Amino acid sequence: MADVALSVESLSAWYGEARALTDVSLEVAPGEVVTLVGRNGAGKTTLLRSVMGLHRQFQGRVRVDGVDVSSRPADARARAGLGWVPDDRGIYASLTVAENLLLPPVVHENAWTLDRVYASFPVLQERKDFPGTKLSGGEQQMLAIARVLRMGARVLLLDEPSEGLAPVIVQRIGEIVREITGHGVAVLLVEQNVTFASTVADRHVLLAQGRVVERLDNDQFAQRKGELLDYLGL
Prior knowledge:
Largest sheet: 6 strands, mixed
Low-confidence stretches: none
Helix content: 25-40%
Distance between the termini: 37 Å
Mean pLDDT: 91
Number of helices: 10
Radius of gyration: 17 Å
Strand order of the largest sheet: 6-7-8-3-9-10
């Protein structure tokens, strides 16, 4: 399992009696980006939340670096190396950028230092005394990613990082994701922006009605981009 950072095995999830996911399995290697692609309601965010332990009505196995965390709560999964970046970014509006970065505990010896964060995200150093409410959407996204790296996350769960951002900022977020994977961090990414997904990811998992229906490498994904855009209604 040394070459697998995140393993999801036969994961099913429910909301009450309504099934949201059925027997989903996937793996993400260190330094790899895998996207979850599908229409709204396909179960993409539910899968991320189940992996993180934020959605508890599920069955299946979740392993981080070979360690089974399926029965652990979200905080224990964070200590095991999972980092959650929700679509609303979860920035504390009343805290400064520096306070947002320093508030969560360091959970792993590979955690990024504050100096390393500022070196990779210079705009955050420039804005370190700004409250969260004064940041642009792109700056908030960078802060949300940097915060989990400073905690020591080795697997990032990113939910729609390009949503609502200008194209030039989306390009920068893509560059940041690739920089992160260069340090061996694994990324599981929910993304509706097919163009962005094709430029940042190594592999793609297509979900429909809570099931994995296809697995595509980047060449296959690029060849079928038009078909996928039509399918997603974009």
